[in-house]
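Hi all, long-time lurker, first post. I run a small reading group and we've been trying to get comfortable going from sequence to structure in the token notation. Rather than ask abstract questions, I figured I'd post a concrete chain and ask someone more experienced to write out its structure so we can walk through it together at our next meeting. Sequence below, copied exactly:
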Amino acid sequence: MTLLRILVAGDPYIPAAQFARGLAGMEGEHDIAYLDVDMARPFTPATASELAIREYAGSPDELAERLDDHEVLVVHGAAVTDRVLDAAPLRLVCCARGGPVNVDVAAAAERGITVTTTPGKNARAVVELTLGFLIMLARGVGSSQRALLDGTRLGESAFEGAEFFGVELAARTLGLVGYGNVGRGVAQVAGALGMRVLAYDPGLPREAFGDAVEAVTLDELLMRSEFVSLHARVTPENENLMDADTFARMRPGSFFINTARETLVDEPALLGAIRSRHLAGAALDVVRPAPVMTRNPLLDEPRVVLTPHIGGATGETIERGVAMVAQEIAQLSAGLAPVHAR
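-- Answer (accepted) --
Happy to help. Here is the structure in token form:
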């Protein structure tokens, strides 16, 4: 085992104290320093490397100033640019998220620095939120809750529920667009509820879907599914995968769920499908940023359920992510290959 100097940068989502709890077993084996990035520190991206990252916390200058002869840098959302990578003899950057969008991965590769991530750490949490969305849409929770909030219903009589009849999920058809960690988890819980599950994922061979899921084309999935749940990967080709044409091909009166990424959905097209009542409702955990001083019109649709990207926001998700970071450090210390290198 090789002793390593490690700098851990926490942020409001995964604070340094959370990292410290997960790495406590390594304290006697390695030299570990912790900091929480200063979210108020001014930073205006200017260089090519700084412009290449997004969804970051703090300024890369702070990391560059704190790095010395460290060999490992651990971050969640801290900004890792070429200046940071040049500030120490780094061998490994561990990013405790599924996609290292806050790390200049290309610059790291040019310097021979390995970047690892924590894929699948939030899969269970996203599966459970998707299940919650399925039930909320099936039972019209969005519309019925709005009726209470605007004061038109008191919720005191069983007869009031006559306006909000829903459906039970057993024997309903769920279509999964994408069949990775989350898609497989959703298929499992949906099957336990008695749902028929269809799946579309062009990157997988047919045998990868197993016997409990029917692998179909996207067109067939859209035509047959009463609920369509989006779990596709983000690629340049998949931007606006769900657009006006795609929504038009969905079964009339069906429901749409997105717990993946906002770039996969053409939101004006979704809004049109909701307002025309071609779709009975939608539930979204991710939406595109609204222009300054404007309001996303989906917020005002009673048949749309919105949450502010809480899919992976559980304590268990964070614990799994930190444990995966610890594993990568242990691999490096033992002279072994990383488990989840980019």
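A couple of things your group might point at:
The chain has a mean pLDDT of 94.
The domain at 123-306 is CATH 3.40.50.720 (Rossmann fold).
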